[in-house]
Specification:
Layout (H helix, E strand, L loop, with lengths): L24 E5 L6 E6 L7 H12 L7 E6 L2 H5 L30 H15 L2 E8 L6 E3 L4 H10 L4 E4 L23 E9 L3 H18 L20 E10 L5 E3 L8 E2 L5 E5 L2 E4 L5 E4 L12 E8 L1
Parallel strand pairs: 2-3, 2-4, 4-7, 5-6, 6-8
Antiparallel strand pairs: 1-3, 5-7, 8-14, 9-11, 10-13, 11-12, 13-14
Helix pairs in contact: 1-5
Length: about 325
C-alpha cells in the first residue's frame, strides 16, 4: 500500500503545446497597448494544478483585449518524468528551478538552469506575473507576495486566498517571483506566487482556477466574462497578512516535532516548544506565532527548512 497522497485528477497531455514562441511558452498579442501579463505553471514538475489551468486557457483560445498574455510551462522535463510510484521525485530534474534566478549569469550546467535561460526573456518582458504552485503536504492556500508593499497590495486586490504571506524567499536561492523588477520597490513590475494546496487534490485545481481568473481580471487585459464560467469562487470575508520573521532549518535532518502541525496554525504563547533539532529545543519567538507551511511532519535532509514562523501584521 502506497503512503503517497491520492491523485484526484487526470494530468493533461501537454505535448500539444510544445511549439510556441519558445518550447512550451506561448505569447498572445492583442495588438493594443497594455501590460504584458505572464501566467507560469510547472515551476516544479509535480505541481500540476497550475498546468491544468494553463492548458485549459490555451485550449479555450483566451486572448487579451489589450496588452500581451504569456503562458509558460516552466519545468516541462520534470513534468514529463512523473511516475505515480514516486510522485515527489518529479519536482525537478537536477535542482530546484525556483532557486536559480540569482545566478543565471553562471554556466548552465543543470536542466533547470538551461530551462531558466529559455524562460528568462519572457519573465523579463512581463509587467505582471502569477506563478502557480502547490504543496507537498495538505494545507490551506497561501499567496506568497514577497517582502515589498507592492506585492501585498496586489494580493489584496486579487482578493483570495485568506492568507497573504510577506516573505523574502529562500536562503538557497532567488525565486522567479523575486527576479528583476519584481523584487525592486522602485519598479512598477509586480509578481505573486500562489500555493494552491496539496499537489494532487482536486481542491487545488479549484483554487488555481479561482486565483488565475481573479489575477487576469485584475490586470485588465481581459474582462471577467472572457474567463471560463465557474472558475471564480466566492471571496473570503477578509484576508490577513503574515510576515515571515524566521525560517527554521534542520541541521542534519534530525528534527523531532512534538506533534503533528497544521499549516497556518497560530501558537498563542512565546517559548512554546515546536520540536527538537539534534536534541535542542526549537521554540516560538513571540506570542501568536503563525506556522507557515510546516514540513516538520515528514523526514527531511539536513539544511531543509522545517517551518517558517510569521507574525500577524
Amino acid at each position: 500500500m502506497s503512503d503517497n497522497p491520492p491523485i484526484e485528477f487526470a494530468f493533461p497531455d501537454l505535448r500539444k503545446w510544445e511549439k510556441g514562441a519558445a518550447p512550451y511558452i506561448h505569447v498572445i498579442e492583442s495588438g493594443k497597448a497594455g501590460p504584458t501579463v505572464m501566467v507560469a505553471a510547472l515551476t516544479h514538475g509535480n505541481e500540476v494544478s497550475g498546468a491544468i489551468v494553463v492548458d485549459a486557457l490555451l485550449s479555450a483560445g483566451l486572448k487579451p483585449r489589450k496588452g500581451t498574455l504569456i503562458f509558460s510551462f516552466n519545468n516541462i522535463d520534470a513534468y514529463h518524468s512523473f511516475d505515480a510510484r514516486t510522485p515527489f521525485k518529479s519536482r525537478m530534474v537536477d535542482e530546484d528551478f525556483n532557486r536559480v534566478w540569482g545566478r543565471l549569469d553562471q554556466p548552465a550546467t543543470t536542466s533547470e538552469m538551461k530551462r531558466a535561460l529559455v524562460v528568462k526573456p519572457f519573465v523579463e518582458r512581463a509587467d505582471l506575473l502569477l506563478d502557480l504552485h502547490s504543496m507537498h503536504d495538505d494545507g490551506v492556500p497561501l499567496m506568497l507576495a514577497g517582502p515589498l508593499d507592492k506585492g501585498t497590495d496586489f494580493a489584496r486586490k486579487v482578493g483570495s486566498p485568506v492568507d497573504i504571506i510577506r516573505d523574502a524567499g529562500h536562503a538557497a536561492g532567488m525565486r522567479m517571483r523575486d527576479y528583476g523588477g519584481f523584487g525592486d520597490a522602485a519598479s512598477p513590475k509586480n509578481a505573486l506566487l500562489i500555493e494552491t494546496g496539496q499537489h494532487w487534490r482536486a481542491s487545488s485545481v479549484v483554487v488555481a482556477k479561482d486565483v488565475t481568473a481573479r489575477f487576469l481580471a485584475e490586470t485588465g487585459i481581459v474582462d471577467a466574462a472572457d474567463l471560463p464560467a465557474g472558475w471564480k469562487q466566492p471571496s473570503p470575508p477578509s484576508q490577513r497578512i503574515v510576515e515571515v520573521t524566521h525560517a527554521i532549518a534542520t541541521k542534519r535532518g534530525d528534527f523531532r516535532p512534538v506533534r503533528v502541525f497544521e499549516g497556518q496554525e497560530t501558537i498563542a504563547k512565546a517559548g512554546t516548544v515546536l520540536g527538537h533539532d539534534d536534541g535542542q529545543p526549537v521554540t516560538t519567538p513571540y506570542d501568536n506565532c503563525v506556522l507557515v507551511m510546516p514540513s516538520a511532519n515528514r523526514p527531511l535532509r539536513g539544511g531543509v527548512t522545517v517551518v517558517r514562523l510569521g507574525r500577524l501584521i
